[in-house]
Amino acid sequence: YSSSYITLPLLLFFILFESVIKRTLKYIKLFGVSLTISLLIIFPFIVYAITKDNFFIQRVNQVNLLNSTETQQQLKSGVSFFSIVATATQINFKSLFTKDIGGINEYYFGHQALFNSVTFILLIIGITCCILIFLRKIKENTIYLYPLFIFFVTFFLGMVLTVPLGAFHRIYISFPFVALTIAIGVDLTLKKIKYHSVLVSGLVLVFGIVNLISVLKMIKEDQNISILTDSVYLDSLIKENAKKESRIFVSAYPAYHVGKELLFRTGNHYKIKTDYFPYILPLLKNNDFLILQYPENQQIKMLYEKFPNGILISKIGEYNLKYHNIFLTTYGNFRNF
Predict the structure, then answer these.
(1) What is the pLDDT of residues 187-197, one digit of tens each?
(2) What pTM value is reported for the model?
């Protein structure tokens, strides 16, 4: 993910910043040695990426906000890129403390808010304390800004600039720094109070109980969420309605799991291809099946323009598909929906 690739640039930025502030080359020399060793270790992978397949940016391209069909359509409709990013920022920020927004692609977090109310309040206190400490003695306390900088940058690159929205798992590298920020806030807020240790112990106990409740709630909610369930019903519909010449297409990033699942579930009786919607649309013919991950209105419109006698299915029997729709290019004597 894009948030993973900021580790080295951030580290380099911090080292250069500290070297300038403290007027020393010590950090640069130490970093130079470790960087050289690291590059030697990954050198074969770099050569392969340059000469064969650049897998380093493969996933970044798959989830990039700019590459999404919806974003492309909005840009063509005259919506500014700034407006698209602003909307994504607002929704992702809200998902940090509001449930039923975040959690995607099997990293559901029970569709809970990333931070429960207690954690979010403590985080705000921690951020405030870090900024105040830095402003007191800017040269000596620059390190207090690093956890905040890491969190905000990973949030922007890992959540705001990726799709779908609410991808908590893409900012996991910042989680230790979130904990550090909370710890700084708790320590500075309570350390001058009498019975400091007792208050901290009590807060830790309450914090632990609240988080345990949140985890148990997340687990319970996760039991009702499964992207794999869709594939079971998709398989049953395909088996009951597909013809010998039928082909199965999956509109998603090429490594998406549903196509691989259906390969085994259908006994490898049909040709199955997974790719982005713009590449699949020209390949579709009569009697084909197209599975759409997170179907978009524009995609559905384009399908009906090409196959006016087709049909879009979002419910199979009594089961409502959660993360997919399936489009049958030829509507005939189909069953089971």
Answers:
(1) 888 887 777 78
(2) 0.70
Q: Across the chain, where does the E strand assignment appear?
A: 247-251, 271-275, 289-293, 311-313, 315-316, 319-320, 324-328
Q: How many CB atoms lie within 10 A of CB 168?
A: 22
* Cα–Cα separations (whole angstroms), residue 280 to 262, 284, 310: 17, 7, 16
Q: Which two tokens mark 202? A: 């009590």
Tokens representing 131 are: 């900024």
53 pLDDT tier (thresholds 50, 70, 90): confident
Q: How distant, in Å, are the alpha carbons of 74, 259, 262 from that of 275?
A: 21, 10, 15
* Contact by Cβ (8 Å): 167, 106: no
Contact 256, 274 (CB under 8 A): yes
* Cα–Cα distance, 137 to 133 (Å, whole number): 7
Residue with tokens 């409740």, as numbered in its chain: 213
> What would the two tokens of residue 124 be?
């705000």
Token couple for 117: 């109310």
Structure tokens at 312: 């879009």
Work out the angle at residue 234's Cα, subtended by the Cα atoms of residues 230 and 235, and round it to the nearest 5 degrees: 120
Helix axes 117-136, 175-190, angle to 10 degrees: 70
Largest CA distance in the chain: 79
Assess contact for 170 and 102: CB atoms under 8 A: no
Report the distance separating Cα 122 and Cα 138, nearest Å: 23
Tokens of 19: 């070297």
